[in-house]
Structure prediction request, 431 residues.
Amino acid sequence: MTQLELALKGTLSPQMEAVARQEQVEPEVIRAGIAAGNIVIPANINHKNMKSFGIGKGLRTKVNANFGTSSDFGTVDTELEKLRAAIESGADTVMDLSTGSNLVSVRRAVVKASSVPVGTVPIYQAGIEAIEQHSAIVKMTVDDIFSVIEEHARDGVDFITVHCGVTRGAIAVLKEQGRVTDIVSRGGAFMTGWMLHNDRENPLYEEYERLLEIAREYDVTLSLGDGMRPGCLADATDRAQVEELITLGGLVERAWKAGVQVMVEGPGHVPLHQIEANVKMQKAICKGAPFYVLGPLVTDIGAGYDHITAAIGGAIAGAAGADFLCYVTPTEHLSLPDVEDVRTGVIASRIAAHAADIAKGVKGAADIDRRMAMARKKLDWKEQVKLTLRPDYAEKVHNKHAASSEACSMCGNYCAMRLVGEYLGVATEKC
Prediction:
């Protein structure tokens, strides 16, 4: 039985109990949230030795890290190194988005090595195999698509992005809209090209029940992809994006009825003033299903620093109710990320998620900030380093120009807290 079916039956699974301990809530809170469709626990029955994470209402905002090979670069070893860096930096999940010729071996190695849930986009493999066999993505068959999806499920993939909302109706709206960047989703582009060439409806939409059967058998969580997501601020919250979201809202309910866990993916480039509205719109249309957002990126000109533009948007989205942030690295729009880019992207997204959790009042979220404040008052550098999101880097930076343990980082002998403490008769403690 899937986590959803167990929850609806009133049964607490080991995964639900583990998530309850992590989140410091009663197990019944997790079970009820899963039963209502507001929480998911991506946990494929074939993915062994994995730590379970809950994503959804009332829980800590989770962070995902993407990596993967391309046709030009990447091996199993390079991607396993990125996997380790992502987990060590605190990613709650990872996604293997490989498109290189070795993508099957990379995926299987990642699933085997990963202690956190793993996501994939099966249409990438289906499209690439069609190119290899028939010289064109548009020549993949419906059976090819579903065969690859089942292969990913058998291999232990915990959640899959499927672009079920890229329908003929959505494409018609896209044509009328007149976008600047059209479609920037690779999976969305694969499906759009296939549909237009074959003059057929999207098989992931038309044969959705077939998809649900596979997901239910392995308890794969569906991540309903946003193939019509805006690729620039000018295209944000337009009719094509909303048309797809309305379709996804209906598919969410069909997944629930089939006992399949489901979450919904959200837009990429969104100006600050539209983010909250986007989150509230998704929550209303999709009846509270967990919301998974890429960033959002709040400006189009942050190339090289898009981990910052995404963290700004992620904090606002999370505070507004988004449940799951997909990290963005400094190399977004420029290159494949290396190991250090992965670390930087995860930390930036974790900062956004934590800021959102404080705003949402997630249990225990603000506690660590108070502990940090107390350590700073005491000039306790060891404790400060320990409490940071990346202690090794914090210690390296502190040691670079540290004058003494009695001086703060900028003020030296003129430490404001030490001076005021003396005036108030409350001496700052030495570390």
Summary: The first strand starts at residue 39 and ends at 40. The mean pLDDT is 94.
